[in-house]
Amino acid sequence: MRLCGGCQTKIPDDQKGMCAVCEQDRYGTQRGDGIKSNVAVQSDAGKTHTQAGYDAEIEPLRKIKRWHDRRAQVIKRDGSCVRCKAEGRPPAPIEIVDHVIPAQIAIEQAWESKRFGPIDKYAGYYLLCNLAGLCRSCHAVKTLEDLSHSGPWPNVMDVYDAQPKKKWSF
User: Fold this and answer.
1) How far, CA to CA in Å, does 61 sit from each of 54, 91, 126, 127, 134?
2) For the purposes of burial, counting CB atoms within 10 Å of the CB of 102, is it exposed (0-12), middle (13-18) or buried (19 or more)?
3) 3-class DSSP assignment, residue 77
4) Which residues contact residue 156 at a Cβ distance below 8 angstroms, ignoring those fewer than 6 apart?
5) What element of type H or E holds 40?
6) Where are the alpha helices (DSSP H) in the chain?
7) Taking every pair of C-alpha atoms in the chain, what is the biggest distance, in angstroms?
8) CA angle, 141 then 144 then 147, to 5°
9) pTM beyond cutoff 0.85
10) What does the pLDDT look like over 22-31, one tens digit per residue?
11) CA 124 to CA 155: how far, in whole Å?
12) Three-state SS for 63?
């Protein structure tokens, strides 16, 4: 059993997201927020990528255990919508774990840094420092901001380097 994303009641593990009542209340007959769109833009390296939404290459990354584990970590870490908290509004529950710097750009930046070697091509997709828990309304606003972004994106590896690292003692 797990909790419904809307009313926090228990739902079966195989049921996605929310209970049937919350699903109907939230989406009516049409699911989705209607803001995902694929917009091809040039990255700093001159490569064309998808800025919003997911393309065929990275769509499967959302369906594997590694992503679900990362998503659970972000939800546990953030607790409630980070944008609502930052703007002084009452915190709303997390509905979406979002990439602060768009996923495709983060993947490219991590790959180009050569920090994760040839083994992990998609390491940038899973960086905790680039993930934030958002409510649906804040996600819609952030997506529109991403679509209107101009200029180079900040380097996700700079954010990664600034994060405290775990110290190992043996």
Assistant:
1) 10, 28, 9, 13, 19
2) buried
3) helix
4) 101, 105, 106, 109, 110, 124, 127, 129, 130
5) strand 40-42
6) 20-27, 65-78, 82-86, 103-113, 136-147, 156-162
7) 56
8) 155
9) no
10) 676 655 544 4
11) 11
12) helix
